[in-house]
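Worked example 2:
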Amino acid sequence: MSGFTVAIDGPAAAGKGTIAREVAAHFGFAHLDTGLLYRATGRRVLAGEDPIAAAQALAPQDLQGEGLRSGEVAQAASKVAAIPEVRAALLEFQRRFARLPGGAVLDGRDIGTVICPDAEVKLFVTASDDVRAARRFLELSPKNPDLTLEQVQADLAARDARDAARDTAPLKPAEDAVMLDTTELGIDEAVAAAVAEISARRAG
């Protein structure tokens, strides 16, 4: 196998996406936000497509454009992610990406457990429920003035429950994952911790 794979998992708004982007930039690795695969599938489902057919037909251009970060698409993504046939359709795409020769960082919810169980580095990024809700509220509220913190808290709780309870690839840390709690960390501190862990693994 070629490449060096970094798997970053964790619940929504824990900071894993930002950490993954910064880590990839630091090491010159390719980066894949695997949640976008499910968001793009969810967006196609909201437009009337069958979930499995939408996943099978997903194209790179589907990972761009407006609306992928909306709350509605996020809920649709969480629902389609619970369908085993959808996950199977997206599995090989992710595994091929993970072994790009120049190294790759993938962030999602089942990278270290299902997609890349042999990843050289596995991080599980988490934070308290209150901090995650506050972060997501700050992210979404400028585009949705009517949004309340309570709505965001309810949405995150629903997603957490659905992600943790699904039969296929539930959200949980890999047994050999390094836990990174960002509740009291700034982004620079969180990224530094991740970089240190990856650097140590590469050196070792």
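The chain has a mean pLDDT of 93. The domain at 5-203 is CATH 3.40.50.300 (Rossmann fold).
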